[in-house]
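Re: your question about Cytochrome c oxidase subunit 4

S., sorry for the slow reply, the queue was backed up all week. Below is exactly what I fed in.
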Amino acid sequence: IPYYTDSFTVPCPAIRFREVDEALGKLREKEKGDWKLLSLEDKKTLYRASFNSTLEEVRAPSGDWKRCIGDNAILMALMFLGVSVIGFADPQYEPKTVTNEWVDAQTEYLIKRRVQPVDGIASWYDYENNKFKPTWSIFTTKETSKSVKTLSEKE
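Result:
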């Protein structure tokens, strides 16, 4: 089924844009003759009867990016509002994953599993002496290194 579309990939659609009416029919008859006899207005009318837009009009920016930016701004504002409400509702809330107990348990788990033995936490642990290598102090603060015990001390 032929259909009309304005596109760079199909610059000449299979059908014309407008249906032929009485006035356009007269122009179509004049079109078959000498084009020098047609006025500029007649040529424009014939063009617009065949095509909805010029290729420059098709290429022109649509302005859809403004709507996308606006939608994203509204979404971010709503998310910020939601996080703020949650923060004001329980200001003392602290996730359990940031407590010292959790960090110690996670560290112990990673060492026992020998996770990332090349450049991760397992590479910083001396499994023969059951303690962290001296390079571990480079990556930790004083408080963290005090809270981390060796595996032999925990057993």
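The two ends are 79 Å apart (CA to CA). The chain has three domains: 1-60, 62-92, 96-154.

Happy to talk it through on Thursday.
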